[in-house]
């Protein structure tokens, strides 16, 4: 199990390095075509997109947890007190 985790961590690091390299390449290409203002907008967009994806995943996890908790609560009720929506 430890070896698997180490290998997964190494794979993740390699993927991150490749992603960073591609990001720099795209940035350099765009910088040669866009104004400073447009580049600032692009950088802001990329940062916000990442932040929103993280927030979306957190919210999805909370929703899933809430649904699981609701199911457990419903399952703990006597049959005659259960309602379905």
From TrEMBL:
Its main location: cytoplasm. Pfam families: ASD2. GO terms for cellular component: cytoskeleton. Residues 1-78 form the ASD2 domain. Keywords: Cytoplasm, Cytoskeleton. It is found in: Cytoplasm, Cytoskeleton. Gene3D superfamilies: 6.10.250.3120. Transmembrane segments: none annotated. Belongs to the shroom family. This is ASD2 domain-containing protein. It comes from Cirrhinus mrigala (Mrigala). The lineage of its organism: Eukaryota, Metazoa, Chordata, Craniata, Vertebrata.
């Amino acid at each position: 199990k430890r070896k698997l985790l180490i290998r997964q961590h190494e794979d993740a690091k390699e993927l991150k390095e490749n992603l960073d390299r591609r990001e720099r390449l795209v940035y350099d290409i765009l910088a040669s075509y866009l104004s400073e203002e447009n580049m600032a907008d692009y950088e802001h967009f990329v940062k916000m997109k990442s932040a929103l994806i993280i927030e979306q995943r957190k919210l999805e996890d909370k929703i899933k947890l809430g649904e699981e908790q609701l199911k457990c609560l419903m399952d703990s009720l006597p049959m005659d007190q259960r309602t379905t929506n």
